[in-house]
Amino acid sequence: MAAALSALNAKIRSHPYLSYFCSTHFWGPASNFGIPLAAIADFQKDPEFISGRMTAALTLYSATFMRYSMAVTPRNYLLFACHFINFGSQTTQGVRFLKYWNYGGREQALKMKAKAQEGIQTAEKEGKNIIQQGEEKLKEVKDKVAK
Description:
- Helix content is 84%, strand content 0%.
- The protein is an all-alpha fold.
């Protein structure tokens, strides 16, 4: 059994693409791509839920490991790409966080929500008025038909 596994490993390692595909140089970055994908997916979400500390930590983490990916031998370009994308997306999230909490974004969002609520209330009143007018017209028509 050990000989069969050894032969299989030798066969995989003799092919450069298979060897790379079966290495940590591929699977480390591939599994790590979940972090930038999650950050990119969060671009559409409300900035109120962004954690400033976590965003800062992930930005520093990505900057550190971008450097690390070029320092190892052989250079790991897939790891660099993963952390480059994560650095960009975390920086974008950081800017959204700062705009929301420090530069008036929250107040603007609250004003917009209040205006939207006013619009909903106005629409409800207008809708009730239209329904009431329709009921009055219906009553007039019923009275005319009844005569």
